[in-house]
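Session log. Operator J.P. requested a structure for one protein chain; no other inputs attached. Running the standard single-chain path with token output.
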Amino acid sequence: DKDIIRDTILDFIEKGIQLVLVAGGMSVDPDDVSRVAINDAGATDLAYGSPVLPGAMFLYARIKDVPIMGLPACVLYYRATVFDLMLPRVLAGERITRRDLAEMAHGGLCLNCEKCHYPICPFGK
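Structure written below.
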């Protein structure tokens, strides 16, 4: 329910949380309402979609200067995703822009190697 998601995000922010992760509900399916809830909560700097696989349905926004990361379902199933590329940058205090996301196209394809060596591989480089 988008109202519950919106209210929960705002409640956490009022309590002083420094980062909000919203998992699932990021696709274009009408039942996926997380993106709408984040926007309804007052999101600014909203950037939706990334040229990274896995993780094309990633969302980044800010609400009252708190970073919001909307995580596509792939973060549950793959060893390395857009989340692994973005989390260190967000924790370092970077304000992610649409341009930042677009620039991730170079190196944005995880090859799903049989034996994963991430982060010692071309993914995200």
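Operator note: Residues 6 and 37 are 5 Å apart (CA to CA).
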